[in-house]
Amino acid sequence: MTDEFNTVSEDELHAYVDGHLSQPERGRIEAWLEKHPARAQEVREWQAQAAALQQHFAVYAHGEEGDRALVSAHRHHGHAVASSPALVLRRIAAGLLIFAAGAVAGMYGPGIIAPVRPPETAESPDSLPRQAQSAFLVYASEVRHPVEVGADQQAHLATWLGKRLDYGLKIPNLSALGFSLVGGRLIPVNGTAGAMLMYEDGSGQRLTVLLGRNRNNRETSFRIASQGSLETFYWIDGEIGYAVTGEVPRSLLQKVADECYRQFERSDAS
Amino acid sequence: MSHGRDGSEASAGADASEPDAFEEDVLALMPALRRYSRSLARSDSDGEDLLQDCVEKVLTRRQQWRGVNLRAWAFTIMTNLNRNRHRHRALHPEVEYEEALGLVAEEQSADPLQSRRLERALDRLSAENRSVLMLVVIEGYRYQDVAEMMAIPIGTVMSRLSRARRQLAEAMKDDNVIALRRPK
């Protein structure tokens, strides 16, 4: 029939939908579409799709508070083989799963290579920071389920973990240092029930506070243990060992540890 | 030990020092990158994961950037990362938690049901077809640009675009919805 118009290709229809054509070209396509209702229907579908997709994803085109931290995260961790802390953690965490399984079974050993050890060896004082660090590596990188009980149920969290630990647990408030509670979970420490609390600052930087029973009853003052860029402050006070872990500057972590120490003192007394 | 770091990072977190020009450029791209990552992903958290992987790669590979069109370069990196993730997913299928709960991206649209159908339909596209569709429709790239970004012939771009559009339309129909509203 109207053969002169019968020259519109599939590619041209896409270009029409995507607005890549000049006005005269559009006119030619439209005239052709009027004579080809089936294709016109399809083109309308594609146009509607495009509009729906644009609308659907438009809300995501925004900056977020953590973007600056994400972009600058690299500078702090070397140059050539730099990796964002989150990614490093994710990778380490994956590698540590086996290791964590050992910890769960109360068989935490001194090295990743030999996780199967009798539970007794778990009890040396320096095993506390190691357990704290492995817990941090595993859970702080968890996007969806970093904790079992969230900060919205803080009272329940304190009661629950306190009960399992057999200790009047008061959850430290670290808001003065810019960290808010994410929540907590039950976690094996030294082969028995321990507690992990997780905090987060505005940029998503996380800290964990680990509490575990210490059957040896050895007191220690504040100590520091580092593993790469991961720092842990820990102390043992009577029957409970505490470890504050994060990938943050040591000076900041120390403030957090001081704050926790002060607030735990009070919870002990109460 | 890392005593030296304490001083330089005492102010904590990431704003310890001024971002350089490259980082500023990446920051300026974040909204577009976030949108593109989400348009390729199955869920919000999947999208953020992809975004973070991409930003990491962009920053660690900055020496490889030839100095033209950072946006297109970053989009290419994202496209490739996403394809690799899909491969991985094909080998290790897992149901996204949010998806399992039926919570996929319902929040932002006026019509949540419609949004879910759209997301579900999109998830049936291959990573390659989906990337082409998003680059063209949402990010506004021309076919030739997409061909260069993905290092494929323009004919392949067109056939992927075509397939994506038809499959999406089919999937929406399968879902028993006629109905993306018409523009105008």
Oligomer: heterodimer
* Separation of the first and last Cα atoms of chain A: 93 Å
Low-confidence stretches of chain B: 1-16, 94-109
CATH architecture of chain B: Up-down Bundle
> In which range does the helix fraction of chain B lie?
55-70%
Which H/E pattern describes the elements of chain B? HHHHHHHHH
Tally of distinct domains of chain A:
2
State the fourth-level CATH superfamily of the largest domain in chain A. MucB/RseB, C-terminal domain
**Overall residue-averaged pLDDT value of chain A:** 78
CATH H-tier superfamily of chain B: PhyR, sigma-like (SL) domain
Task: Report the strand count of chain A.
Answer: 7
Brief synopsis:
With 270 residues, chain A is an alpha+beta fold. Helices cover 42% and strands 19% of the residues of chain A. By secondary structure, chain B is mainly alpha-helical.
Task: Please characterize this protein's 3D structure.
The complex is a heterodimer of chains A (270) and B (184). By secondary structure, chain A is of the alpha+beta class. Chain A folds into 2 domains: 3-58, no CATH class; 86-269, MucB/RseB, C-terminal domain (Phosphorylase Kinase, domain 1, 2-Layer Sandwich). Chain A is built from 8 helices and 7 strands, in the order H-H-H-H-H-H-E-H-E-E-E-E-E-E-H. In chain A, strands 1-2-3-4-7-6-5 form a 7-stranded antiparallel sheet, sandwiched between helices. The longest helix of chain A has 22 residues, at 37-58. Chain A is elongated, with a radius of gyration of 29 Å. Residues 76-85 and 94-123 of chain A have low confidence and may be disordered. Chain B has 184 residues and is an all-alpha fold. Chain B has a single domain, classed as PhyR, sigma-like (SL) domain (Butyryl-CoA Dehydrogenase, subunit A, domain 3), CATH 1.20.140.160. Helix content of chain B is 65%, strand content 0%. Chain B is built from 9 helices and no strands. The interface between A and B is large, with 58 and 60 residues.
